[in-house]
Design brief:
Helix content is 15%, strand content 41%. The protein is of the alpha/beta class. It has one domain (3-147): Nucleoside Triphosphate Pyrophosphohydrolase (Alpha-Beta Complex), CATH 3.90.79. The mean pLDDT is 96.
C-alpha cells in the first residue's frame, strides 16, 4: 500500500485514524545503525510498523524488525513516544493516520539481513552517514534522540 507523509503541511488532509505503531533503533557492535529503504514511500527509516491485536508493543517491535530485516532483536530500552498531530500519513486506501509511535532501542540476537515486501533495501549505516540518506524528519528525530543517549525517554 502506497503512502504519503505530510509534516507541518497546511495543505495536508485531515487525519481520520489513530493507531499504535512502533519502531526500533538498533546498532551493531561497531555502532552502525540498522536502516531500511521502505517500499511504500522510498524513504530510509528505522524498522517499524503497526501494532496488531493480541501482541504487546515490544512484541510488535520485534516482529516488525524481523519481518522487515530478517534480524531477531531483543528490546533493551525506550527512546520515546511520538505523537505529532502535524504529521499525518495518507494511505491509498483512504486512511489518513495521525502519527502515534513508540520507539524502542534493541539489540540483535539472531537472524540474517534480508529484504521483504516492506523493505527494498536493508543496511547498516554509520551514524555520520545517515544525513546523506533521504529520511523523513520524524524518523530523523527518533534517530537523533537515540544517538544522543538521553537519560529519559522523549515524549510529546
Amino acid at each position: 500500500m502506497a503512502r504519503v507523509d505530510y509534516f507541518h503541511d497546511p495543505n495536508a488532509p485531515k487525519a481520520n485514524s489513530l493507531r499504535p505503531a512502533v519502531s526500533a533503533f538498533v546498532q551493531d557492535e561497531s555502532g552502525q545503525v540498522l536502516m531500511i529503504r521502505r517500499t511504500d514511500n522510498d524513504l530510509y527509516a528505522i524498522p517499524g510498523g503497526q501494532q496488531e491485536v493480541g501482541e504487546t508493543l515490544t512484541q510488535a517491535a520485534t516482529r516488525e524488525v524481523h519481518e522487515e530485516t530478517g534480524l531477531k532483536i531483543e528490546i533493551t530500552g525506550l527512546i520515546g513516544l511520538y505523537s505529532n498531530p502535524d504529521h499525518v500519513i495518507a494511505y491509498d486506501d483512504g486512511e489518513i493516520r495521525q502519527e502515534f509511535s513508540i520507539c524502542f532501542r534493541g539489540k540483535v540476537t539472531g537472524g540474517r539481513l534480508c529484504t521483504s515486501s516492506e523493505s527494498k533495501e536493508v543496511l547498516w549505516i554509520p551514524p555520520r552517514s545517515i544525513g546523506e540518506l533521504n529520511v523523513h524528519p520524524s524518523i530523523s528525530l527518533r534517530i537523533n534522540h537515540a544517538l544522543s543517549d538521553r537519560q529519559t525517554p522523549f515524549f510529546t
